[in-house]
Amino acid sequence: QVQLVESGGGLVQPGGSLRLSCAASGSFFSITTMGWFRQAPGKGRELVATITGGGGSIYADSVKGRFAISRDNAKKMVYLQMNSLKPEDTAVYYCHQSPGYWGQGTQVTVSS
């Protein structure tokens, strides 16, 4: 059974940084695609970034150049380094493991 637990969210000022972590359990972690999604108040859930088992990644246009996704297969961890944060990055961030497993989410609030 797959379980995903996110951590690292919080309140940060515009221009600041946060690092989100996702701890995964279950088998086949190293060969599955992992991702981060987010959902802002009143909006649908949207893709932020994904990373394959081999390390290939894609990003939403809105976060390219500011966010970086990475993984540690030995530790079954996925990370999202978020830099130059903007108020529009405020959302609940969810960890996702293919084909359809979700964490409980962690709140990120960017505000002065």
Number of strands: 11
Extract low-pLDDT stretches. none
Output the helix-strand order. Answer: EEEEEEEEEEE
Q: N- to C-terminal separation?
A: 40 Å
Number of helices: 0
Give the radius of gyration: 13 Å
Tell me the quaternary state: single chain
Specify the helix fraction band: under 10%
Residues in β-strands, percent: over 45%
Structure commentary:
The protein has 112 residues and is an all-beta fold. The protein has strands at residues 4-7, 10-12, 18-24, 34-39, 45-51, 57-59, 67-72, 77-82, 91-97, 101-102, 106-110. Strands 2, 4, 5, 6, 9, 10 and 11 form a seven-stranded mixed beta sheet that branches. A four-stranded antiparallel beta sheet has the order 1-3-8-7, with no helix packed on it. The protein is globular and about 40 Å long. The protein starts with a strand and ends with a strand.
Give me the secondary-structure topology:
Blueprint: E1 4-7, E2 10-12, E3 18-24, E4 34-39, E5 45-51, E6 57-59, E7 67-72, E8 77-82, E9 91-97, E10 101-102, E11 106-110
Parallel strand pairs: 2-11
Antiparallel strand pairs: 1-3, 3-8, 4-5, 4-9, 5-6, 7-8, 9-10, 9-11
Features:
112 residues; mainly beta; 4-stranded antiparallel sheet; 11 strands; 0% helix
Quickly describe the structure.
With 112 residues, the chain is mainly β.
